[in-house]
Amino acid sequence: MSKAYWIVRVSVHDERRYPEYLAAAGPAFQKFGARFIVRGGAFETMEGNARERNVVVEFKDRSTAFACYQSPEYQSARTIRQRYADADFIIIDGGAD
Q: CATH code at 60?
């Protein structure tokens, strides 16, 4: 069973209010054992379009990654995020360990 990842690219349009999303999402991340591999940081766009924030979150497997996203805790946080930011969001399987 391979790990799975959320890969999220975010453009925040209300920096002052965006922390509300982060606080609301915390319980879902804790409940599903999310591990942040990348959370912001400097980057270089080599091809295509980019957003100003990039996040990679690791989960033990695909079903856990989906369960976290679909959980009531995260869906509530998602509603907040959508007020203050635009995002591209995928769930992807990792390579076999």
A: 3.30.70.100
Q: Give, for all 97 residues of the chain, the pLDDT tens digit.
A: 799 999 999 999 999 999 999 999 999 999 999 999 999 899 999 999 999 999 999 999 999 999 999 999 999 999 999 999 999 999 999 986 5
Number of structural domains in the chain: 1
Q: Which segments of 1-97 does DSSP mark as H helices, in order?
A: 19-31, 62-70, 72-84
Whether the CB-CB separation of 41 and 57 falls below 8 Å is answered with no
Q: pTM surpassing 0.85?
A: yes
The dihedrals phi and psi of 18, each to the nearest 5 degrees, come to -55, -35
Residue 73 belongs to what domain range? 4-93
